[in-house]
Amino acid sequence: MSLAFTLDPAVTPALRDGILDLWADVSNAGGSVGFVPPVTADDIRPELVKHFVAMTEGRTRLLVGLDESGTVAATAFLTFNTHRLMTHWVWLYTVMVHPRHQGRGYGRDLLAAAEEAARGLDGIEAIRLTCRGGNGLERFYGSCGYKEVGRVPGAIRVAPGDDRDDIFMLLHLG
C-alpha cells in the first residue's frame, strides 16, 4: 500500500484532529518535529493553529498523506519565503510520517510529493528545510537529494546538557 497525498486539503475537524494526533505520536516516539516527549495534542494545538493561520493568509500550503483507512499518516507544510530577495525558494516544515508507517518508504514518498508540489508553484526553484542533528536525519534527507548547506552547532536544546546541531538542507528543483 502507499499513501494518497493531497495538497491543500479542506481543513475539517477530522483533518485537524488527525494532524494533532500524528504530531503528538511522532513527537512521543522521539521524532524531531519541534517538541520533546511527553506531549499531548493540546500541547501541540497552538503550533498547528499558527500553521493554519499562515495557510489562511496564503503563506503556507499543507501536504497531507492519508493511509488506506483514510487516516492522516504524513504531513509537510510548504511555506513561502517573504523576503523579497528570497521568494524563489520555499521552506519545508513539520515533515512527519506516523511511526507505525515508518520503514515502508513513506518518508521518501512524502518528500517526492513535496518536491512535486513545489515544482508546481510559480517561480520556486528550491526547497529548504532544517533538521535536528543526532538522529541521522541529514543522511536520510541527503539520500533523497537534499544537500547540507549549513550547520549551527548546539543550536537546539532538547534537554539540559543535550544540545543538537541545527542542520540546513537544500534541494534544487532545476
In words, what does this structure look like?
It is a single chain. The chain is globular. The chain has a seven-stranded mixed sheet with strand order 1-2-3-4-5-7-6, with helices on both faces. By secondary structure, the protein is of the alpha+beta class. Helix 1 crosses helix 2. It contains four helices and seven strands; from the N terminus they run βααβββαβαββ. 30% of the residues lie in helices and 34% in strands. A hairpin with an 8-residue loop joins strand 3 (72-80) and strand 4 (89-97). The mean pLDDT is 97.
Keywords:
single chain, 174 residues, alpha+beta, seven-stranded mixed beta sheet, 4 helices, 7 strands, globular
Radius of gyration: 15 Å
Order of helices and strands: EHHEEEHEHEE
Low-pLDDT residue intervals, each spanning 5 or more residues? none
Strand content: 25-35%
The dominant shape is globular
**Secondary structure tally, helices:** 4
Structural class: alpha+beta
The level of helicity is: 25-40%
Q: Please summarize the sheet with the most strands.
A: 7 strands, mixed
Main-sheet strand order equals 1-2-3-4-5-7-6
The overall strand count is 7
Question: What's a concise summary of this model?
Answer:
With 174 residues, this protein is α+β, with helices and mostly antiparallel strands. It contains 4 helices and 7 strands, in the order βααβββαβαββ.
Topology:
Blueprint: E1 4-7, H1 13-28, H2 41-56, E2 60-66, E3 72-80, E4 89-97, H3 106-119, E5 126-132, H4 137-143, E6 147-159, E7 162-172
Helix pairs in contact: 1-2
